[in-house]
């Protein structure tokens, strides 16, 4: 390239990036077309005359997000960088901060929003800043926990999010696991449950947590399972749960007696929601998260870097 051309490219770049003139102003001053200015700015970057450095962002994290999105066909992925010296509590707080900010940006007027529950979802909901929206409804998509394990009761989360969005809320008055199939069917077909089922048909956005393997001890509801339930899940090689529905390593829903006693959205219904968002992290949960992504039950995942890398390893081993 001739020196005079390089000089012109450098001058245009200086005027645009340093003097902060618009492309139209540069075109007028140099007596050239605005489209020529745009083309020459692109050329200046290609020739190395302009080098753009983006601070406060790890390019490798962006690349991982894109790879993750393409691998699982997701609508969106939000990854949090993993800090090696951070403890588990700090990692959970970082996840909640990122999840709350991402979710808040997506919420708009007229939405019907569904909530599951658990520690990750609860932390995120608690951190969401208020946003004045119109005609928003927030509803539970699962029954509640037992009375001894109700820190993140779904009704509490539903009320809290609706309050922050200036919306209305609907509550569920049943535990997620019933003693018998007949009791569950009676609740599901009752008059009081009818309104909730109608909202489930109109869901626009659902936020869910993801339960880890059976050995995972942080679950807020598994005290409702009987010894026979655990034995059945072990025999059928359950790897996790979402909306309190268990599945195996290939994402196959386990349609046993436990599933028939469960009050909640099915995985197939979850997959049909326009935007289904999972919030979860932890190496031990990677085997539980991967099947949900592979089967298309979730359209968005909010997690951290180390978890995403482990999920990809689990997927590649299959």
Give an overview of the whole structure:
By secondary structure, the chain is an alpha/beta fold. It contains 14 helices and nine strands. The chain has helices spanning 3-18, 23-30, 34-46, 59-72, 88-106, 119-127, 154-164, 181-188, 191-201, 227-235, 257-260, 267-271, 286-294, 305-317; strands at residues 76-80, 112-115, 137-140, 168-169, 205-209, 240-242, 245-247, 275-279, 300-304. It has a seven-stranded parallel beta sheet, sandwiched between helices. A two-stranded antiparallel sheet has the order 6-7. It starts with a helix and ends with a helix. The model has no long low-confidence stretch (mean pLDDT 92).
In short:
The chain is an alpha/beta fold and 318 residues long. It contains 14 helices and nine strands.
Structural class: alpha/beta
Rg over alpha carbons:
25 Å
Overall shape: it is elongated
What is the N-to-C order of secondary-structure elements (H for helix, E for strand)? Answer: HHHHEHEHEHEHHEHEEHHEHEH
The biggest beta sheet reads: 7 strands, parallel
User: Could you list the spans in which at least 5 consecutive residues all have pLDDT below 50?
Assistant: none
Measured between the Cα atoms of the first and last residue, the distance is: 51 Å
Question: Can you count the beta strands?
Answer: 9
Helix content: 40-55%
How would you state the average pLDDT, rounded?
Answer: 92
How many H/I helical runs?
14
Strand order in the largest sheet: 1-9-8-5-2-3-4
Strand content: 5-15%
Family: Belongs to the SorC transcriptional regulatory family.
Pfam family, one: Sugar-bind
Organism: Enterococcus raffinosus
Domain Sugar-binding: 61-313
């Amino acid at each position: 390239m001739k020196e005079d051309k390089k000089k012109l490219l450098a001058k245009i770049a200086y005027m645009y990036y340093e003097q902060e003139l618009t492309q139209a102003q540069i075109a007028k001053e140099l007596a050239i077309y605005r489209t020529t200015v745009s083309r020459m700015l692109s050329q200046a970057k290609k020739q190395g005359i302009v080098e753009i450095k983006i601070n406060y962002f790890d390019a490798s994290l962006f690349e991982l997000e894109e790879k993750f999105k393409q691998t699982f066909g997701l609508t969106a992925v939000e990854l949090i960088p993993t800090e090696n010296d951070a403890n588990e509590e700090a990692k959970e707080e970082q996840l909640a901060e990122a999840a709350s900010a991402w979710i808040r940006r997506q919420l708009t007027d007229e939405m019907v929003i569904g909530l599951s529950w658990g520690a990750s979802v609860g932390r995120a909901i608690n951190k969401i800043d208020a946003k004045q929206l119109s005609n928003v409804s927030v509803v539970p998509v699962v029954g509640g926990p037992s009375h001894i394990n109700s820190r993140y009761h779904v009704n509490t989360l539903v009320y809290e999010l609706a309050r922050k969005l200036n919306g209305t809320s609907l509550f569920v008055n049943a535990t997620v696991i019933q003693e018998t199939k007949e009791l569950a069917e009676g609740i599901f077909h009752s008059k009081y449950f009818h309104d909730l089922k109608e909202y489930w048909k109109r869901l626009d956005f659902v936020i869910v947590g993801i339960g880890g393997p059976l050995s995972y001890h942080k679950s807020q509801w598994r005290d409702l399972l009987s010894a026979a339930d655990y034995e059945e899940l072990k025999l059928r090689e359950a790897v996790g749960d979402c909306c309190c529905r268990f599945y195996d390593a290939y994402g196959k829903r386990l349609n046993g007696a436990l599933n028939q006693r469960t009050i909640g959205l099915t995985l197939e219904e979850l997959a049909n929601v326009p935007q289904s968002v999972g919030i979860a992290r932890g190496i031990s949960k990677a085997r539980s998260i991967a099947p949900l992504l592979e089967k298309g039950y979730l359209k968005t995942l909010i997690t951290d870097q180390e978890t995403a890398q482990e999920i990809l390893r689990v997927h590649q081993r299959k």
